[in-house]
């Protein structure tokens, strides 16, 4: 049972971070299918820092990991600018932009990873990161059952919980968040209040990239333990499903991500208990996606997307 | 500086758009603290002129003088700095925000949590808005979410948005177009209280009665030119109307008496539920005979539109029966209803009546696209479509810049409506349903639509008219049914009813025991 909770959380929290990135973009009115690409691009920049400067740090160094995370956020934000430019400045179709950005991210990061590794380090096609160290929270981890939440915690999980709290506060309590949400509902109202719709949306897309990058590097430091093409497992798409299931609101999205994370770890546990051959574990891996399908079937009817989502804002048009 | 007599002056304003002079050398001076009405038919240039004052357009020639100083107003936010505000015809509100959040957007009061984290102080904002709304008698619920409130309160939110920004010159673009009779009364009271509060109001309208009721002065535009400037107190509405349309306007004649024929439509114990399974039409029964105009009067949202939708096949009915020309059409498809002779002019011409991005000729063909000669074995005959359109455009006086090829979106509301009416009349149906056929139209277009309705009556068609304008009901109806709270509380020949009596039933204070047919 403990394993299910521990693994579930370590998957659910990065997923949540990515989903909240998606919420920021979409609540401002910019459809963001680019999450998968953004998480890869962000994680790649973080991994790149480790590849070049990791040698100066002791193995398993926490500061190195934190710097890598910061790099991943910057990298994600910069790469998201591309989506912002296309969608906000050049008024491109947001769905096409998102899909193209995903394909581009995958191609470029995998290609560069190979090139850098073969020319500089003469090694495999992966940037080795290792698995982040874990820790137990004293006292709390001793509580039966619930204590598992505080057992074998990755440091990034703590960071993500803090980030989520901050992002919630910004979206629902501050001026910026209020204006961002207004842009996603009726940009004309924002414009007539003398505010720039474009600037707000652009900022939202960049924030989206930063959060997604953070989620991406967290996966790289836990599940895959390296940066390679194996980072692209569809978590970006799953995050989109989670935020839609969460009705574009942060708190329900937390629930959706926990559900997906626990479904995934529970599936693995099930495969273990049943002692299934390893080829079956692939089948178990699709569990969260099957769950996504079911969830979408049952809940889509009651969901309401931001009113101006995907709508290109044109001042002159009424 | 001495108090200026004129708060805003427009001198020799000219604005050209490709192919049209929207404003031609217009000079107007607006006094501080007056209600100044700007009157004119659609396309006369009222909105363009006010858009220039509001900074949406820059004039090609002429100058603007605000509080004695010449200015160039480059944008709406520049206009806001000069304390000029505008309530647009289409509201600009964030639907999932509260009233307060909408009003303060852009000027949110903030505080710091623990002296550190800034946040929007909605508590203070709610208090400020409640205070502001009390001061001008603009009743709003500060914490209500926009999507849950009606048009009238939304409009008050727009007005409060301007006041919150300290606007002194308030421009209203056709503010009563979407409102029910008592809501209009309420708005007019608000305008008067704003004037009392020292605000200057510019009212764009083509409803003469309202102007007569509240305005101090009135300027009339026709085809881009200023054609008259009156003190409203000394001028009759008849005078204003004839200056506005540029010719003598005879009062509308009452329809001649008709011998009614057989019953064409029969609605029996109709019940309709809305999305939330709440009954919106309750046990409504009535009939419409050939040659009769049956008008349903009522304040918006009392089930009239749902009755029309149920008859037309747009809304599912819960129980009851509908009979058209002797055939039970309760469960019939829309195509079957069309074939049996039902024509429908819907409430919302832009979303239900027309395909805005299609050309006019295509829109005119929408009812017959599956029939010869327009459809030849599954292929559309473009020649037939455009030839047909030429005839209809001529016959119904539809004004469209590029004839049948004009995109409908670019046409004026009046001409869009004429196109729908033309298309529906051409079906030759025995029953015609008109839902708010003249909503938002000017006098000229309204008269044209009324004439078409009366012509159809003279041809012996059964006509069901649903209107929020009591004047329209009084001008056209043979029989009136009043709806209140989803029930038809009174059915009687128009000759048995007075204006006040219908008004009382519309507000639910009539005696509902008198339902007779």
Describe the structure.
The complex is a heterodimer of chains A (318) and B (517). Chain A has helices at 2-27, 35-53, 62-89, 94-121, 155-173, 175-185, 187-192, 197-222, 235-245, 250-273, 278-285, 287-299; strands at 127-128, 226-227. By secondary structure, chain A is an all-alpha fold. Chain A has one domain (2-242). Chain A has a two-stranded antiparallel sheet. Chain A is globular. Chain B has 517 residues and is of the alpha/beta class. Chain B folds into three domains: 1-83 and 168-249, Rossmann fold; 93-167, no CATH class; 263-514, P-loop containing nucleotide triphosphate hydrolases (Rossmann fold, 3-Layer(aba) Sandwich), CATH 3.40.50. In chain B, the strands form six sheets. Chain B has a six-stranded mixed beta sheet, with helices on both faces. In chain B, α14 (413-425) packs parallel to α15. The longest helix of chain B has 16 residues, at 181-196. The interface between A and B is medium-sized, with 20 and 24 residues.
CATH topology of the largest domain in chain B: Rossmann fold
Q: Would you report the number of β strands of chain A?
A: 2
**Low-pLDDT ranges of chain A:** none
* Number of DSSP strand runs of chain B: 24
- Radius of gyration from the alpha-carbon trace of chain A, in angstroms: 20 Å
Largest interface: A-B, 20 and 24 residues
Sequence of strands across the biggest β-sheet of chain A: 1-2
Helix content of chain A: 55-70%
pLDDT averaged residue by residue of chain B: 87
């Amino acid at each position: 049972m403990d394993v299910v909770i521990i693994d579930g959380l370590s998957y659910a929290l990065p997923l949540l971070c990515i989903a909240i990135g998606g919420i920021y973009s979409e609540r401002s009115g910019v459809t963001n299918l680019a999450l998968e690409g953004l998480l890869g691009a962000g994680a790649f920049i973080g991994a790149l820092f480790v590849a070049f400067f990791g040698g100066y740090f002791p193995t398993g160094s926490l500061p190195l990991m934190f710097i890598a995370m910061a790099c991943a956020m910057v990298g994600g934000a910069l790469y998201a600018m591309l989506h912002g430019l296309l969608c906000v400045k050049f008024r491109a179709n947001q769905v096409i932009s998102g899909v193209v950005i995903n394909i581009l991210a995958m191609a470029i990061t995998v290609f560069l990873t190979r090139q850098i590794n073969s020319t500089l380090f003469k090694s495999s096609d992966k940037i080795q990161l290792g698995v982040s160290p874990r820790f137990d929270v004293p006292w709390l981890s001793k509580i039966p059952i619930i204590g598992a939440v505080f057992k074998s915690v990755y440091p990034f999980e703590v960071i993500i919980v803090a980030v989520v709290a901050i992002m919630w506060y910004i979206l629902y309590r501050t001026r910026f968040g209020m204006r961002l949400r207004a842009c996603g509902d009726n940009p004309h109202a924002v414009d007539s209040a003398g505010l720039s719709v474009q600037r707000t949306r652009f900022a939202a897309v960049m924030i989206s990239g930063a959060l997604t990058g953070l989620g991406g590097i967290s996966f790289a430091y836990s599940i895959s333990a390296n940066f390679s093409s194996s980072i692209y497992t569809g978590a970006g798409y799953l995050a989109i499903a989670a935020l839609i299931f969460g009705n574009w609101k942060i708190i329900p999205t937390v629930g959706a991500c926990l559900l997906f994370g626990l479904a995934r770890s529970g599936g693995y546990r099930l495969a273990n208990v049943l002692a299934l051959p390893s080829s079956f574990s692939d089948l178990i891996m699709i569990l969260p996606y099957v769950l996504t399908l079911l969830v979408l079937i049952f809940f889509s009817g009651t969901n309401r997307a931001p009113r101006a989502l995907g709508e290109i804002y044109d001042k002159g048009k009424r | 500086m001495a108090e200026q007599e004129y708060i805003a002056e427009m001198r020799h304003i000219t604005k050209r758009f490709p192919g049209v002079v929207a404003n031609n050398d217009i000079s107007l001076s607006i006094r501080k603290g007056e209600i100044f009405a700007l009157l004119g038919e659609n396309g006369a240039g009222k909105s363009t002129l006010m858009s220039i004052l509001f900074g949406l357009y820059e004039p090609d020639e002429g100058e603007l003088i605000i509080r004695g100083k010449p200015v160039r107003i480059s944008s709406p936010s520049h206009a806001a700095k000069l304390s000029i505000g505008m309530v647009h015809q289409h509201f600009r509100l964030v639907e999932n925000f509260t009233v307060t959040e909408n009003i303060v957007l852009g000027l949110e009061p903030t505080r710091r949590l623990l002296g550190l984290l800034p946040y929007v102080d909605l508590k203070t904002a709610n208090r400020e808005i409640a205070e502001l709304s009390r001061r001008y008698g603009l009743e709003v619920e500060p914490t209500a979410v926009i999507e849950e409130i009606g048009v009238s309160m939304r409009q008050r939110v727009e007005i409060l948005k301007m006041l919150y920004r300290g606007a002194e010159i308030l421009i209203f673009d056709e503010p009563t177009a979407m409102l029910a009779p008592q809501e209009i009364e309420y708005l007019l009271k608000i305008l008067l209280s704003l004037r009392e509060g020292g605000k200057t109001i510019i009212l764009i309208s083509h409803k003469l009665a309202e102007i007569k009721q509240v305005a101090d002065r009135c300027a009339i535009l026709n085809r881009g030119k200023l054609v008259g400037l009156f003190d409203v107190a000394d001028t009759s509405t008849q005078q204003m109307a004839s200056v506005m349309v540029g010719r003598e306007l005879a009062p509308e004649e009452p329809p001649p008496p008709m011998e009614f024929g057989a019953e064409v439509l029969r609605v029996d114990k109709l019940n309709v539920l809305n999305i939330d399974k709440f009954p919106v039409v309750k046990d409504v029964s009535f009939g419409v005979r050939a040659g009769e105009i049956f008008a349903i009067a009522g304040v918006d949202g009392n089930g009239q539109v749902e009755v029309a939708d149920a008859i037309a096949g747009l809304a599912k009915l819960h129980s009851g029966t509908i009979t058209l020309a002797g055939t039970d059409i309760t469960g019939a498809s829309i195509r079957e209803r069309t074939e049996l002779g039902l024509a429908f002019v819907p409430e919302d011409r832009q979303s239900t009546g027309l395909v805005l991005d299609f050309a006019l000729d295509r829109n005119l063909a929408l009812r017959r696209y599956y029939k010869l000669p327009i459809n030849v074995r599954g292929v559309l005959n473009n020649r037939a479509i455009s030839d047909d359109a030429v005839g209809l455009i001529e016959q119904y006086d539809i004004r469209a810049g590029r004839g049948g090829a004009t995109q409908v979106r670019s046409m004026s509301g009046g001409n869009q409506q004429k196109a729908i009416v033309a298309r529906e009349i051409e079906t030759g149906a025995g029953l015609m349903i008109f839902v708010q056929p003249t909503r938002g139209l000017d006098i000229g277009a309204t008269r044209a639509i009324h004439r078409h309705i009366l012509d159809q009556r003279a041809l012996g068609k059964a006509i069901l008219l649903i209107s929020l304008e009591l004047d329209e009901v009084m001008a056209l109806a043979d029989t009136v049914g009043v709806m209140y709270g989803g029930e038809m509380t009174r059915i009687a020949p128009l000759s048995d009813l007075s204006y006040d009596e219908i008004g009382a039933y519309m507000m639910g204070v009539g005696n509902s025991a008198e339902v007779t047919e």
